[in-house]
TrEMBL record:
InterPro entries xref list: CobU/CobP, P-loop_NTPase
Protein family (similarity comment): Belongs to the CobU/CobP family.
Recorded GO MF terms: kinase activity; nucleotidyltransferase activity
Function statement: Catalyzes ATP-dependent phosphorylation of adenosylcobinamide and addition of GMP to adenosylcobinamide phosphate.
Catalytic activity entry: adenosylcob(III)inamide phosphate + GTP + H(+) = adenosylcob(III)inamide-GDP + diphosphate; adenosylcob(III)inamide + ATP = adenosylcob(III)inamide phosphate + ADP + H(+); adenosylcob(III)inamide + GTP = adenosylcob(III)inamide phosphate + GDP + H(+)
Enzyme Commission number(s): 2.7.1.156, 2.7.7.62
Keywords on record: ATP-binding, Cobalamin biosynthesis, GTP-binding, Kinase, Nucleotide-binding, Nucleotidyltransferase, Transferase
Protein name: Adenosylcobinamide kinase
Keyword Nucleotide-binding annotated: yes
């Protein structure tokens, strides 16, 4: 599993498209549910999963607590790892980095930011490669 992380509109998708010729996309921005990621993954393609903040926000809106959400996403990362090895094709997670900048005033916005940060840390631990993208430039961190 690979993680591409960076700020909004930093060039994360462009970096992924340049590296991988054939991709299947599971995207919250396109209305995809995270539960159907296997159905979105076409044979012999790299699976790209994006829109984590939307999926996390949805989980928070369903009144799940932070530990449950983090545990659910950790199990998902483990499932990604198993399926990636089974198919012998990579999975790329594109995540929005929200830890830099102003801390939100609203409690729910702060909670979303915190949970996103913890889930990103869990993704880093599970990933074989981590790339940070900033202004269209990428730097391999792991």
């Amino acid at each position: 599993m690979q993680l591409v992380i960076g700020g909004a509109f930093a060039g994360k998708r462009k970096i992924v498209r340049e590296k991988y010729e054939r991709c299947s996309w599971a995207s919250a921005y396109m209305g995809d549910s995270l539960s159907n990621w296997k159905m979105k993954w076409e044979n012999d393609t790299t699976l790209v999963v994006e829109g984590w903040e939307k999926w996390i926000e949805h989980e928070l809106a369903n009144r799940k607590n932070m530990n449950e959400i983090r545990s659910d996403f950790s199990h998902l990362f483990q499932a990604f790892d198993v399926e990636e090895k089974k198919r012998n094709m990579p999975i790329v997670l594109i995540m929005l980095e929200v830890g830099r900048g102003i801390v939100p005033i609203q409690k729910n916005d702060r909670l979303l930011r915190d949970v996103m940060g913890w889930i990103a840390q869990d993704a880093v631990k599970m990933s074989d490669e981590v790339v940070y993208v900033w202004n269209g430039l990428c730097k391999r961190l792991k």
